[in-house]
Amino acid sequence: MQTKILRVNPRNPSISQIRQAAKKIRSGNVVAFPTETVYGLGANALDSKSVRKIFAAKGRPSDNPLIVHIFDIAEIGILADNIPNMAYDLMERFWPGPLTLVLKKSKIVPKIVTGGLDTVAIRMPKNKIAQAIIREASVPVAAPSANVAGRPSPTMAKHVREDLAGKISLIIDGGPTKIGIESTVVDLSKKTPMLLRPGSVTLEQLQEIVGAVKIHPIIFGKKTNTIHRSPGMKYRHYSPSAKIILVEGTKAKQKISQLLHQYKSQGMRVGILSMEKSHTKSDLTRFIGSNPDTIAANLFKSFREFDEKKIDIILAQGISQKGLGLGIMNRLGKAAYKKIRA
Ligand code: AMP
Ligand code: MG
User: Fold this and answer.
1) Is 119 annotated as ligand-binding?
2) In CATH, what number does 243-341 get?
3) pLDDT for 46-104, tens place per residue?
4) Ligand 1 proximity of 65 Cβ (cutoff 6 Å)
5) Domain YrdC-like: where (predicted)?
6) Does the pTM of the predicted model rise above 0.85?
7) Strand ranges for the chain from DSSP E
């Protein structure tokens, strides 16, 4: 399959380009497009055959559910049942934006979208291109991240091309995504809301609106025997081919220098993922920023850069889990081959 890449102006998308993408979705095909979080791979959420193409292109396990993207808040009533008031409070505050709500699914949502669950994840994106495509498609659009399963989520059209060229027919290139990590996911299908995936809408912001929020133990890297409320969480994610070693604690810096020398002396190519301006020399040191917004925006891109430079080991120092830090540390933790406390 030929993969066409269409450059679209993110501030003022041309309607004829948007219609090309929407037409593909309406006719049962998949299209990759930017959202404010990462690039998504979208298909008509109400059509099982279309949605199956997403799973096939990504090589995604069938029990890992998709997020349904909407343009108009009214669609929520079609996709979900028993919507609690809390959901409306959160929508009012954070939509359009990087917050996904898990609600009881309605009959209309095919099981393939929800990985067999009786709940559906819904989000209204803020990115203008995403909004216009969903509006013109005039169907809800199921869209997971547009990467091959297990690879880091794409934050640029070229990442989508690296993973999916030949497997999908259209990539909409709207430049780099703003946020860089996937949406916050909160489950509202039970009495107390539960954070299933941290993101740029922070735990603290959610608590301000709804009060108590439980945190799924897996976010802190704990192994649980209980049934996963979010099946996607059990899969190793976001990983570059290089092995990430995540070092935390007061002696993290010293430990990183020691590991750098140790692995170098074993003949390995060692990279450093740096979140402080003072760099340590390595085969590839990538400074990805010192504030959480910049770190999130550059994180997945840097994973791919380490792979391009054939790095074997990536040493990364942990950051505070406050605010967006929780989402960043969650992605680093899931990508990590090993975590060390020093
Ligand atoms: P992705 O868009 O690739 O980041 O994947 C979407 C993620 O949203 C999944 O891996 C799940 O963690 C989460 N998700 C989607 N639908 C549900 C649902 N019904 N219940 C819980 N989590 C969900
Ligand atoms: Mg994903």
Assistant:
1) yes
2) 3.40.50.11030
3) 999 999 999 999 999 999 999 999 999 999 999 999 999 999 999 999 999 999 999 99
4) yes
5) 15-201
6) yes
7) 4-7, 31-34, 39-44, 67-69, 80-81, 99-105, 119-123, 141-142, 170-173, 184-187, 194-197, 214-215, 243-248, 270-274, 284-287, 313-317, 336-341
